[in-house]
Amino acid sequence: MLKKDLAGFFAFFLGVFGVHRFYLGQWWRGAAQFVGFWAIIAFLAEEGPEMPAPFILVGFVLAPIITAIVFWATPYERWAAKYDPEALVAQGYAPPTTTGRYPTVATAQAPKPSLKSLKAEGVKYYRSGDFDLAIEAFQEAIELAPSDPAAHFNVACCYALLGQYPAALRHLELAVTYRLPKPERIESHPALKELRASTAYRCFRSNNYRELNLVSLTQSAQPAPADEAEDVLEDFAAPPRSDASNRRMLDDDLLVQINRLRELHDAGVLTQQEYRKQREKLLG
């Protein structure tokens, strides 16, 4: 590993002999400096101070001194990028580029947050009343899991509290389509109180909680995982629930599935025809 200050020292005091160039591995330039200096000395000794030999000698003396000053004044990263790039990379700096950009310290890319952490962050902002930040967190969660019903429901609550009813209805439709756990909470959740009083919501409800049919129920919409199914916002004034209460086991019992269909039908999520079709499918 080369040292910038030492290279400057060699250039300032021994530069006329090309020592700093040999130190930097530029042996051809060091040899040229060494041979050129002594050639001028020999010429002056033989012919005397005839022009322009004295000026050439002054140039050979001043050039390494100026080089030393430049070495000392240049930031280490820029100096090492030119003369010792391997050491620069070894110290954690980004390798130099051909564009001449100033090298920067190479940092490890931060791992992307998980779906659960994003939803927890959104809930935290929601409880503190920062609905805009909560929306950002829930939207990031939706980007990771577009079919997560809890994330869609949560962001719908935030939009409703901000008075952005079209966006709230859109995410409510997606939440219902992706099998929102306990869909009846749409009719009772305090965050949706003002939304429920709007004409747009009444039309939305009369259409089985659909406005644009963004995702068809005939598609294979997957239910929320067991550890995420209850990760839905409750009253923002209530304290957070424990992790144990947020987890429930999936029950594949036929009776439970039939009861689940009945709940969806009673809540208006499934039409009579859809309910019969799904029930017949379960009964074989």
From TrEMBL:
It is found in: Membrane. Residues 257-283 form the SHOCT domain. Keywords: Membrane, TPR repeat, Transmembrane, Transmembrane helix. It holds the Pfam family TM2. TPR repeats lie at residues 115-148. This is Tetratricopeptide (TPR) repeat protein. The chain crosses the membrane at residues 52-73. Residues 4-44 form the TM2 domain. One of its GO terms (cellular component) is membrane. Its main location: membrane. PROSITE patterns: TPR, TPR_REGION. It is a multi-pass membrane protein. Gene3D superfamilies: Tetratricopeptide repeat domain. Coiled coil: none annotated. It comes from the Bacteria.
